[in-house]
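quick one before i forget lol
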Amino acid sequence: MMDQTWKRQRVGSCIVRAVLAIIFTVAAGMKFAATPFEVAGFERFGYPLWFMYAIGALQLLGAALLWVRGLISIGAALLAILMVGAVGSHWHVGDPVVTAVPALALLILLIGLAYARRAELAVLAPMMNAERP
């Protein structure tokens, strides 16, 4: 019975990571292609065009990290930070709440994924605190 539960959790995690990776890879592609939707959005928020490309690169990095064993929580946290920025941008320009709902939904999924993989952070912490020669 325990083995089945573990398999379900693993399959569920893979599905969530795949959906998130697809969403953020497509979003990054739209930014790199400078689609009118993305350009208009960044202009409306008052951000320079280079910032759109930087966000696209971070989205692509985060999507890739979702598949690197030991760094899934870092990828989810990176993407969650970007979603906090997206929600804040919508609220800052006075958009209706409904326009921030997709970013909020992604934020909740990403926080859940990062929390589920929090043990990875415990493994990384000693490496970050190691004394350097």
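fyi The helical segments are 2-32, 36-45, 49-65, 72-92, 97-116, 119-129.
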